[in-house]
């Protein structure tokens, strides 16, 4: 499966200057947040590919008008071609806007998904807006990562964690890809193409407890 990852900036080549050949070979589009609703709706209409998304901290408009025709991954597990995707949108709380969470609040969201994860027998790809702590995040409060994402990877061993939020033009040392234990962490800023094997074997059933 060839996935087009998007986050944080609307790419003119995929919108203002769109041509069908620019998505040739793409099977799935995944948004990691902070993208205009109209951009995602344009892509799902013009490409005829599924668009999965999680909200970013600037996606206030999604509360009243989520992107039509797209699949909201936030707080759920969705399977496509045998690959299990889990979504956790938002970032660290830095003001009173929507889609912002304390560490405790994000951990509570993960706990609430235990039954969905158990029923899916694990997860292959975690889609977030914020980064995990120490995996491409920054030191300012708005761009600091979540510790509980590390715990999530340690317990479920997904192949990938995809995130946005940290613009790669913030600094020259921001990595596109990192590895945390068995998981490849990818910053989806702007656009990035990722090959994901179809039909990943389910992980072994385990008991998972978040405290």
Structural write-up:
- The protein has 211 residues and is an alpha/beta fold.
- The chain has one domain (2-195): Purple Acid Phosphatase, chain A, domain 2 (4-Layer Sandwich).
- The protein is built from 4 helices and 13 strands.
- It has helices at 37-47, 103-112, 114-120, 147-156, and strands at residues 2-7, 28-31, 51-53, 71-72, 77-80, 83-88, 91-92, 100-101, 125-128, 160-163, 177-180, 183-187, 190-195.
- The protein has a 6-stranded mixed sheet with strand order 5-6-9-10-12-11, covered by helices on one side. A 5-stranded mixed sheet has the order 4-3-2-1-13, with helices on one face. Strands 7-8 form a two-stranded parallel sheet.
- Helix 2 packs parallel to helix 4 (147-156).
Considering the chains and any ligands shown, give keywords for the structure.
211 residues, alpha/beta, six-stranded mixed beta sheet, five-stranded mixed beta sheet, 4 helices, 13 strands, 18% helix, disordered C terminus
SSE arrangement:
Blueprint: E1 2-7, E2 28-31, H1 37-47, E3 51-53, E4 71-72, E5 77-80, E6 83-88, E7 91-92, E8 100-101, H2 103-112, H3 114-120, E9 125-128, H4 147-156, E10 160-163, E11 177-180, E12 183-187, E13 190-195
Parallel strand pairs: 1-2, 2-3, 3-4, 6-9, 7-8, 9-10, 10-12
Antiparallel strand pairs: 1-13, 5-6, 11-12
Helix pairs in contact: 2-4
Short recap of the structure:
The chain is an alpha/beta fold and 211 residues long. It has one domain (2-195): Purple Acid Phosphatase, chain A, domain 2 (4-Layer Sandwich).
